[in-house]
Give the backbone structure.
Amino acid sequence: MVGIYGLGGVGKTTVAEDIYNRLFNIFDGSSFLEKISKNSKTNGGVIQLQETLLFEILGDRNLKVSSILRGINMINESLCCKSVLIILDGVDELDQIESLLGKCDGFASGSRIIITARDKHLVDPLGNGHSTYEVKGLNEQEAIELFNQHAFKRNKPKEDCWELANQVIRYAKGLPLALTIMGVDFYGRTKAEWKSALHKYEKFPSRGIQKILKISYEELDETELDIFLDIACFFNGHYMDYVVDILETYDLYLISSIPKIIDKCLVTVDQYNKLSMHDLLQQMGREIV
């Protein structure tokens, strides 16, 4: 099992899709289950996911699952002799994995299960022999290429748009979601329209970008929300000890709360114990306030 985690919009699903497309044909069977969180809110949703998995691997549309437990048994019985590649994309609760696949110990040798999640805490408990991978933002060259593909339909911008393109790259800070949305938005626009749109983005964040970033934010409890907004407004770039000294006077339970915010990739702590937050997350937090 491999857990892939990272900030919303950083490309976890894209990475999983690429792995799937490269490797699915070397397995006896494969299944890519999307939006696990959204599609497993009810027993019926879980059963439908189980039926989809069985169909994609076995190719039998007549297989019907009568209950979640029966579905787990059918999956384990049917796939125990097959090497399979299974992607569970968008998990936000640990029990979603078990309700779909059980203990994940009934698959043949050589099988691979890949889980994508926004929360590191969800993929850490996978156990010995399994691994986790954090999807980082794009480096500058990768960001330029992705943006140019959407804004200009080629790898290089127009000569008179280099500086404007670089402003977008600095604004997006390597987040593929932002680069894609802004690239599509800027395609075919004049230079004057670009300048106007950039000023607008800097003052009013894109709803499409905020919608994705807010998902992790909205999963925080009330205390964690307060801490996140305090960091966005006052403490981005400050040392952890300084932030703890101030916020602990407000009974915000930092020792238990900050690790949860970090696990959701909303805040990072560097080797010098300094807190930092992606500029777009900070912009979102200040907009919320």
About this structure: The longest helix spans residues 43-58.
